[in-house]
Amino acid sequence: MPGRGSVHPQKLEHVEALKQQFLSAPLTALVGIRGVPASALQSMRRELRGRGHPIRVATNSSIGHALEAAVKERPALEPLVAQVKDQTAVLTAEGNPFALYQELAKTRSPTPARGGELAPNDITVPSGPTSFKPGPIVGELQHAGFPAAIEKGKVVLKKDTLIVKAGQTISREVASMLTRLEIFPLEVGLELRAVVEGSSFYARDDLAVDFEAQRSEVVRAHYRALGLALEIGFPSALTTPLLVARAHRRALAVATAAGFVTPATLPSILARALREAAALEHLTGA
């Protein structure tokens, strides 16, 4: 039995196992698990393990001790030490940290507030009709800060209203009303808090990339560059066919306007002559 002040061998083994996990793969991540029900967490862990992304849940003290030990062999892990807070799990794998962020983001879903939580973002209630019937609910809404009124027999919210600012505490009264309005301001699921890949550290905000927006920007930049290259006549594998086609169209237009007869211009020249003859016939009344 360990003496006073000593560390239980089982805990030492646990910390050593965590340390080896930190050193075992090029990608090491800390994952927030706050608010995830135990049953849902087990299901998520099984699914991620099947994809080669095993998650280990441990106490913050164990994770902290393991990280400090691992840093001696892998200094790049140092920034993760400050990220050991709240409820934390460890994930190690191979792959792209941005893809991993997107994968974990899919585990998150909206959930109602119960009161006492900090708002992760501004909570704004939109104006418009509600599903409530006129009655005491109007006073309850107004007391909680919602601009409620009765119009044409319906309870409505008169204007868009910022109910709770980001970082402020959601009161029980406001939380109850938000739930009744089917507004769920919180999210539950796995949150990729920080990642070290090789020697690179990525905080959560670094990984929260909107791939669709980035793809749209790349496509837009491509077409702008293409338009500029065509405008200045810059030849390349992509622009040369377009430049030749444009030159052909312009040459054809000049030849047609000048009445220069070729197999390509003859149909247009004859069509123009017929139009001019028809117009002349209409003017002379012939």
Present the secondary structure layout.
Elements: H1 9-24, E1 27-32, H2 38-50, E2 55-57, H3 60-71, E3 88-93, H4 97-105, E4 109-111, E5 123-125, E6 128-129, H5 137-143, E7 148-151, E8 154-157, E9 161-164, H6 172-180, E10 186-188, E11 191-197, E12 200-203, H7 204-207, H8 211-232, H9 239-258, H10 266-284
Antiparallel strand pairs: 1-3, 1-11, 2-3, 4-10, 5-9, 6-8, 7-8, 11-12
Helix pairs in contact: 1-3
How would you portray this structure in words?
- With 286 residues, the protein is an alpha+beta fold.
- The protein folds into three domains: 9-108 and 189-209, 2-Layer Sandwich (Alpha-Beta Plaits), CATH 3.30.70.1730; 123-184, Ribosomal protein L10, N-terminal fragment, domain II (Molybdopterin biosynthesis moea protein, domain 2, Alpha-Beta Complex); 213-284, no CATH class.
- Helices cover 46% and strands 17% of the residues.
- The protein is built from ten helices and twelve strands.
- The protein has helices spanning 9-24, 38-50, 60-71, 97-105, 137-143, 172-180, 204-207, 211-232, 239-258, 266-284; strands at 27-32, 55-57, 88-93, 109-111, 123-125, 128-129, 148-151, 154-157, 161-164, 186-188, 191-197, 200-203.
- The strands form four sheets. It has a five-stranded antiparallel beta sheet, with helices on both faces. The chain has a three-stranded antiparallel beta sheet with strand order 6-8-7. Strands 4-10 form a two-stranded antiparallel ribbon.
- Helix 1 (9-24) crosses helix 3.
- The longest helix is centred in the C-terminal third of the chain and has 22 residues, at 211-232.
- It is flat.
- The N and C termini lie far apart (122 Å).
- Mean pLDDT is 86; it is low at 1-5.
